[in-house]
C-alpha cells in the first residue's frame, strides 16, 4: 500500500482509492483491514472469497429485525459513537450484538469520522494515474444472528470437542425436527427435505452422487457414503475439494454434487462448487449455517 500511495505525486487520492488499487493486484482469497497514518480516523475493510461481517450494536433509528443499513453517523442519543465490529466469524461478535451485515465480494467497508459506508467497486478500474469514478453506496438489510452466547461457550465441559460429542443426541434431534412427517393414523413417518423435494427426480436419475468437502466435513461424508449408496442404489464417490480443483477432475451434467461444509464458507469448497456449476451438475449443499 505505501508503494501506491507514494505514486500519487501531486494528485489527491482518497484512502478508498489507494485500497482499491491494492485490491486490483491481490490474488487468492482474503479478508483485510487497512489503517494508515496518512488517513487518520479512517479504516477500510474488504474481502474476496473469505468471510467478513460487520456487527452493528443497536441502530438508534430502527431496532427492528431487518432494519436497513445505509450511510449513517453512528452516534447514540448521548453523543457517544455506536460500536461497530469487524470479524470473519459470527461467534466473535454474538456476545456484543446480533445485528450484522455480511460483506460481499467487491464491497468495501469505509469507516471515517464516526460514519460508515458500504461501497461497491467494479473490478475494471484504471491505474491511480487515471481518473477513478466514485464507487456507489450500497443499501442492504441487516441480518439478525439466531445463535446464543451459550452455544459458543464450553459450559461445564473441559474441551469443545467433548462438548460437541455429548451434544450429538440433541443436535440430531434438532436437525430432524420438522423433517419427520407422520402419515395419518399410521405410526410410520416419512422424511421431508424441503430443499430437495423439487429435485428428487433429477437426483434419482443421476449417474452418480459426488460428495465434496474438506477436513472433517469430508470425513463426515465418507462415513455417510455406504448408507446413502445402499438406500439410493446410486454410486457414491468422494472428492477432496482442493484435489478436485488441482487436477480438474471430471464432473458431468448427469452428476449430483453434494458439498459438505460446517461453516458454508470453506474457500476450496466454494471454488469447487463454482467448478461443478460450470460443468452443469446439480449442486446440493449441507451446512450448519443458513
From TrEMBL:
Transmembrane segments: none
Enzyme Commission number(s) from the entry: 2.6.1.16
CDD domains in the cross-refs: SIS_GlmS_GlmD_1
Occurrences of domain SIS (ranges): 199-290
Pfam annotation, one family: SIS
Gene Ontology biological-process annotations: fructose 6-phosphate metabolic process; protein N-linked glycosylation; UDP-N-acetylglucosamine metabolic process
The keyword Transferase is assigned to this record: yes
Catalytic function, reaction form: D-fructose 6-phosphate + L-glutamine = D-glucosamine 6-phosphate + L-glutamate
Keywords per UniProt: Aminotransferase, Glutamine amidotransferase, Repeat, Transferase
Positions of the Glutamine amidotransferase type-2 domain: 1-114
SUPFAM superfamilies membership: N-terminal nucleophile aminohydrolases (Ntn hydrolases), SIS domain
GO molecular function: carbohydrate derivative binding; glutamine-fructose-6-phosphate transaminase (isomerizing) activity
UniProt keyword Repeat present: yes
Entries under InterPro entries matching the protein: GATase_2_dom, GlmS/AgaS_SIS, Ntn_hydrolases_N, SIS_dom, SIS_dom_sf
Name this protein carries in UniProt: glutamine--fructose-6-phosphate transaminase (isomerizing)
Lineage: Eukaryota, Viridiplantae, Streptophyta, Embryophyta, Tracheophyta
